[in-house]
Amino acid sequence: MKTTLRVPLDMSPEQAAKLRQLQAIFAKACNALAPVVQKTKVWNRVALHHMAYKPLRAQFPQMGSQMVCNAIYSVSRHSRMIYQSPASPFNLSKLGDKPLPLLQFTDRAPVYFDRHTLSVKSGSLSMYTLDGRLHFNVGLSRDDEARFHELKLREVALTRAGADRDRFELAFVFSEKNDEDAQAPLSAPTAELPEYMLVEEAQ
C-alpha cells in the first residue's frame, strides 16, 4: 500500500529561481535521453543507465552524477507510463508495427530526488540545486515525521503547485518496508497525458 505526503515549500524569489533553473535543465536532460528510448525501445531503468549514463553525464556536467541518474529514472518511469499503461493511446499493443512516438518533457516536468540529493531531518529539509544546496524548514506533524522512520520512501518529486503554477511542493511517496515488489508509482490509468509532457508521433 502506497501513501503520499505533499509538502509545500516556503521560499524566497531567489530560491524559486534556483529551482526553476534546476527544473529546466532536468527536463533538457530527459529530452536528450528520450530519443535513445525511442530508437532502442529500452526503458528499463538499469539497462538505460548502462546504455546512456556516460554520454548524458558528459552532456550535462553541471547536473552532477546523481541528478543524471534521477533524470534516467524519470525517463524510465514515464516511458512505462506512456508505452505500457493499458489506457495509454501509445501502449505498445496499440502501436503494432509502428515506431515508438518520441516523449518530450516541458520545463514544468517533475524533478526527482533521492537520498543523495535531498534529506529531511527534524523538520529541516536540504535539497540539491545547480548552485549549492537549499535549506527549508518544513512543518511536519509527528505522524508525518514517523513516516520517514516507519515506511519505505519510494519516490520524491518536486513539482510546481498552485493556480499560478509558480509555487513548489515536494511529493514523498511511501510504502510498507516489506513491500519489496512495489514499483515506483505511476499516474492513475488515463488516456490523457500529464500536462508537462508532449508526445511526438513518428512519421
Polypeptide structure, described:
Helix 1 (13-40) crosses helix 2 (45-59), helix 1 (13-40) packs across helix 3 and helix 2 crosses helix 3 (65-84). A hairpin with a 5-residue loop joins strand 7 (152-161) and strand 8. The longest helix is centred in the N-terminal third of the chain and has 28 residues, at 13-40. Helix content is 37%, strand content 24%. It is of the alpha+beta class and 203 residues long. It has helices spanning 13-40, 45-59, 65-84, 92-95, 142-150; strands at 2-8, 102-105, 111-113, 118-121, 124-127, 134-137, 152-161, 167-175, 197-200. It has a four-stranded antiparallel β-sheet with strand order 1-8-7-3. A three-stranded antiparallel β-sheet has the order 4-5-6, with no helix packed on it. The chain has a two-stranded antiparallel sheet with strand order 2-9.
Keywords:
5 helices, 3-stranded antiparallel beta sheet, 24% strand, 203 residues, alpha+beta
Layout of helices and strands, plus pairs?
Layout (H helix, E strand, L loop, with lengths): L1 E7 L4 H28 L4 H15 L5 H20 L7 H4 L6 E4 L5 E3 L4 E4 L2 E4 L6 E4 L4 H9 L1 E10 L5 E9 L21 E4 L3
Antiparallel strand pairs: 1-8, 2-9, 3-7, 4-5, 5-6, 7-8
Helix pairs in contact: 1-2, 1-3, 2-3
